[in-house]
Amino acid sequence: MLNQNIFNFFYSFSSNSIIAKSALFLSYPFTYGVLFVLIIWAIFLSKNKIYNFSLLFLSGFFSWVVSSVLKVIWQVNRPFIDLHLIPLYQETGFSFPSNHMAVFTAIAFSMFLINKKAGFVFLLIAFFIGFSRIVIGVHYPIDILGGFIVGLIISLIFREIFKKI
Length: 165
Hints:
With 165 residues, the protein is mainly α. 78% of the residues lie in helices and 0% in strands.
């Protein structure tokens, strides 16, 4: 019930057109832009190109894989299906955990290992993306928390792997 109440609170902001457009922007074009800039930085501009790209890419990719597998295992419907709402964007597939949150949390924590200030900025970005996914009606708060946990665990696993290499 708490999950649904928190969802309803954030989803209610979607009735404001400025917030709705901002949430849609954060959920889609912004995420692709951030990933593009991150790839360019890691490959061309960073000092330890291979390490940085590998850590960021592998953490993000495997967070996506793990969260995708967990979606199939748990098969949680998206909130707009359960609550009979009209989302701002018609997502398909299951809801828990959020792939967006898993990937961006893994990237944020991996970036934190590379550069603390940049990692903090990426963590803020991840949280804004997570909240935007609730506002547009495609994720429950527990989905965002689940994605956060997946991303955190995967980034910590890759930190340990990279320590040994």
